[in-house]
Design a protein that fits this description.
Blueprint (H helix, E strand, L loop, with lengths): L1 H29 L8 H21 L8 H21 L9 H26 L8 H20 L10 H20 L1
Length: about 180
């Protein structure tokens, strides 16, 4: 049983490493320009990426030439940006260095990995038996939940917060990357 969990942990870390490398390159090109995004704009960006995945899954063809896997990678990176923004709030200008942005990225990537390990233990690798399209639908559901929590200005009665939804989006998207890599 340990072997399958270790395989998942390794695959998760490899997928996150690929996402981190892209994030770092984009930081070089754009700096932390995403610091300007307000919560609603970030939620809409996640929505656009997830809707595109669903559209490509249904239509089976891309007119732009980019596939589903890069969109899952974008969801992972925007999910981490979301966690950073929740922690720091949005800014009117780029107010953090690339080094600080990468340190925050690494912190939330580690937290996502640790959460995945705990959930994967309890759910016993259930994600491996799921379809990639289910990850997409779950991600879209999480985004809808974030929109509602934003509309309620965070005043929920029993629900997990926006941060938990971002973590779930990251983890489902990583599973999508892994499945599309295998």
């Amino acid at each position: 049983m340990t072997d399958k969990f270790e395989q998942t942990n390794t695959q998760f870390e490899q997928a996150m490493g690929e996402c981190r490398a892209l994030f770092e390159k984009k930081l070089h090109d754009y700096k932390a320009s995403w610091r300007i995004l307000r919560p609603s704009a970030l939620t809409d960006q996640l929505f656009i990426k997830a809707k595109r995945i669903r559209s490509l899954e249904i239509k089976k063809e891309s007119m732009v030439g980019e596939g589903i896997r890069p969109e899952f990678i974008a969801l992972i990176n925007y999910g981490i940006v979301g966690l950073i923004q929740l922690n720091k709030g949005f800014a009117d200008t780029v107010d953090i260095s690339n080094k600080e942005a990468m340190a925050l990225y690494d912190q939330y990537a580690r937290e996502a990995l640790e959460l995945m390990k705990r959930k994967n233990h309890d759910y016993d690798e259930a994600w491996r038996g799921m379809r990639v399209s289910s990850y997409t639908d779950f991600i879209l559901t999480k985004i809808e939940r974030i929109k509602e929590i934003e509309n309620l200005e965070g005043e929920t009665l029993v629900s997990e917060g926006i941060d938990a939804n971002y973590m779930d989006i990251i983890n489902y998207a990583v599973f999508g990357v892994i499945k599309l890599t295998e």
